[in-house]
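Regression test attached.
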Amino acid sequence: MNFKHKYLFLLPGLLVLLGILIFPIGFTVRLSLSSWDSFFPGLDFIGLENYIRLFTDDLRFWEAFLRLSFLSITTVFLQYVIGFALALMVWQEIRFQRFFRVLFLIPMMTTPVIMTVIWRTFFHESLGPVNDFFSLFGMTPLWLSDEHLALVTVIIVEVWQWTPFMFLLMLAGLLSLPKEPFLAASIDGAGPIRKFVYVTFPLMAPISIGAIIIRLIEASKIMDTVYVLTSGGPGTSTETSSFYIFIKGLREFQFGYSAALSFTYLIIMIISLTVIAKILVKLMIRSN
Amino acid sequence: MRFVYVTLKYLAVCLWSVFVIAPFLWALSTSFKDFNSVTGGATYIPWLQFEPSLEGWRVLLRSPAQGGVNIVEPYFNSIFVTCSASLISIALGTLAAYALSRFTFKAGFIKNSDITFFFISQRIMPPIVLSIPFFIMLGKLGLLDSLFGLILVYIVLLMPIAVWIMVDFFNKVPKEIDETALIDGCNPYQAFYKVVLPNSIPGLIVAGLFCMIFGWTDFFFAFILTFTEVQLLPVAIVALNSSITPWWSLSAAALVCVAPLIVVAFIVERYLSKGNLSGALK
């Protein structure tokens, strides 16, 4: 089936997307070669100076990037384990099955920043319920103002927010699995654990990988939560790449430099996500 | 052994449920507090632990001039922007997805799968990378701080989702359907519009739901590209946070904002249980 008309179907969407995107990307590259800031706005040409500064004299950017990698990998791992476990639990018979399924989906429907505002009051060090609980044991952990603990708080909020997404994908996957392998395993007398290891898990591997990659992509943009919860603080201890670029670009108005940061960040993101995806797919093929 | 397993399962499910519900209950309880009950330390049960007040909710209805919080206008703005951007993205995305699923495109080394990947890969783009050029671009076009500018930006955010879900969906709609329609004398547009589209309603609904979720919950672009003229709901509520933080109205406003999409959870669960979602989400 091939028509001249086929372009009329494809092109409107493609052109709109390209139209809205090409300029920003081209402009970012050009901007990254200029020294545009709030004192001297304008597209001058300073060559690779911004990039040299970024690679030789900007520890903060690389720290933010490492922190982002740590945050994304930890949160996505937790989301995957919890989401998969929850999906398994409500997949088969359980009382109030629909209630639990709906409930487990709800956090992903809520606006992250708005829930984060609530979480901020929830983790408030003197007025929030979390420390109300911990004070029973005579402790007052500084959820938002301790360097290390603030990172944990960000992870808790991210896990709350996005485990449902993992849960949704995994449950949809489980519900679409064929029944025969499970029957065969039952006939062979396999218990629940062996069934999971030899049947469910391998069958779910492709879906798992898809879900993990999608979540890694989304997690690599973490910023809203950090902005509202800790504003990157205390100090820079919860700052992620996006947030750092945001500070440089839209708070300090160093447009040129932040364009260089954005472009580098984008390239690193594309490369590392591709590599991770390739590794995961290879692992899956080997395990089968 | 089985008893232990079942007990553990219910325990785990209930624990997670508590974790999911906790912030909502906290917000609900806080929304009925006043200054004294908030600053007096954490309390949970109205009447027993604190005297409930409706101040937090009343503030939402009052005009800003009378010391109220303006969320009515941002609410309508949010609905308008989310719906328009979702509709445009789905219209354009569905057409493109249909083309990618049914016809073969070839230009040099670029094939169908590459075009599909191009659409979907836009999700990889971190919003911050686009924000600065968008800021400058919309500024030059005079669209900064306008609904139209936001809709334009949201199309980039939502169209990849529409294309992703619809390509998968169309791949599962048998080709024979459109071939029969063509033999019966429809032109390709009629075949698409009269035959394929009505058969794709579940896919369209799922795509629509996901566009709504991601549009409604976005904060970043709304935050950067608007200032005073046009405010979307998340921005309006976060703005409350940075002022003296009246927790009661903050909680009330937050609940009002997240409420509509909780309905979506019910619809998504419906589709999930019927098995329609697994086709649409791969």
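Expected vs. actual: identical. Chain A touches chain B through 92 residues (CB under 8 Å).
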